[in-house]
Design goal:
alpha+beta
Length: about 400
């Protein structure tokens, strides 16, 4: 490696890292604001202390770093090559016998480091931060007034509306409850007094103990009936409102954990496929014998088994690898800028990277929707955006080199 090559590597690396820093801040800010809005909807409006809010934000950061890294790498490369092209630096290097490959090499090497950082975030940091986020969120929800009892208060729990007059700690007076769970039938429950206790703190289920309740409800034919008792118990379930906090999503598991889950679902899927193939073989023999039509055989072929959980976990496993390698693969689309003479090259490079990021996001989103519709490995769908855009970048680069 000659001295002039070393100067090129240093210059390009410096420009790329500076552009990456700017692009990272841009995408980080966008995803960060979105996360703040989600937290505001969940806990900020309930006056949680600032330290808990800070921890919740900190634990949620790895969730959007998975997209921040590849999009920042893409944008940095576009801005760097666009700027070099605008100032004719690439042309000057080519006139001095330095191949554009020398420009791409430091960008590729740095992007490999970003790829590693993305995978570490997805496979190690995200599972840990997600677990701590769930613990913190559960703790906050247990201490927050999910059911706010105040004088003259109104609380809505799903299809139930609870109205009370006065409140003394967990005792309420003059309680009225409307249940509109069915359009054809309705219930109105009243009680002179009741006590409210948190029965299940993990699922946020409250127990309502009613004294001398009266229930007005509809019967068949639109008639109303009245019932009463000395005491009654009613459970109020808030679990759907606060979300399932104890459930670990596949995206929050490490690759080793995902592989273990996939192995379990693979066993049941193989058994299901074996039964399908046996039935298919029988149908084919019956078609040959003339007892079944080809239309029935073709209809059965369309019912090829698809294991929901196998597809879901496989998709999340390969998404870790696909998003990580996208930090490098998407760069091939930007290398074309090295052969173009553009005014405002950095700005144009930024715009092109935004368009590419949107296309990649859409392709990935669309691919995820297809994994449950076709009996094809979810890995193919998840890798499709990388394959499509990476191949397009290489083809464009080959065309530009020959021109």
């Amino acid at each position: 490696m000659t001295r002039r090559h070393t100067l090129v590597y240093r210059h390009v690396s410096r420009e790329y890292l500076l552009s990456f820093f700017v692009a990272f801040l841009f995408f980080f800010f966008i995803f960060f604001i979105n996360q703040i809005l989600l937290l505001a909807k969940r806990i900020l409006i309930k006056q949680v202390d600032y330290y808990s809010v800070f921890k919740a934000i900190l634990y949620s950061i790895p969730q959007f770093l998975l997209f921040t890294f590849p999009f920042s790498s893409l944008t940095a490369s576009s801005m760097t090559l666009g700027d070099l092209g605008e100032h004719r630096e690439i042309l000057a290097l080519r006139c001095n016998g330095i191949s554009p490959i020398r420009l791409y090499l430091p960008i590729l090497l740095i992007s490999l480091g970003i790829t590693a950082a993305t995978f570490i975030t997805a496979d190690y940091i995200l599972p840990v931060s997600s677990a701590r986020y769930r613990e913190l969120y559960t703790s906050l929800m247990q201490n927050l007034p999910t059911l706010e009892l105040v004088d003259g208060g109104i609380n809505t729990i799903g299809t139930k509306t609870l109205i009370n007059k006065t409140v003394d700690e967990n005792r309420v007076d003059e309680l009225i409850l409307f249940d509109s769970s069915s359009r054809e039938e309705g219930k109105i429950l009243t009680a002179p007094s009741a006590t409210v206790t948190l029965d299940d703190p993990l699922r946020f289920v409250y127990l309502l103990e009613l004294n001398q309740p009266r229930i007005l409800y509809t019967r068949g034919g639109g008639e109303w009936a009245l019932a009463h008792a000395e005491r009654a118990q009613l459970f109020l379930d808030f679990s759907k409102q606060v979300g399932s906090l104890g459930t670990v999503l596949p995206s929050q598991l490490s690759s080793r954990q995902l592989q273990a889950e996939i192995a379990q679902y693979r066993i049941s899927f193989d058994e299901e496929m074996k039964r399908y193939e046996e039935t298919l073989s029988v149908l084919q023999e019956e078609v040959k014998a003339g007892t079944k039509s080809k239309a029935e055989l073709n209809e059965f072929k369309k019912q090829k088994p698809i294991n929901f959980y196998l597809q879901y976990y496989t998709a999340e496993l390969h998404k870790k690898y696909a998003l990580s390698t996208a930090c490098t693969i998407l760069l091939f689309l930007t290398f074309v800028l090295g052969y173009l003479r553009l005014r405002h090259g950095k700005l144009i490079g930024f715009g092109l990277s935004m368009i590419t990021a949107v296309i990649y996001w859409y392709l990935l989103f669309f691919s995820q929707l297809q994994i449950f519709s076709y009996p094809v490995s979810a890995a193919l769908f998840i890798w499709a955006p990388n394959i499509i855009l990476g191949t397009l970048g290489i083809l464009l680069l080959l065309v530009m080199r020959r021109s």
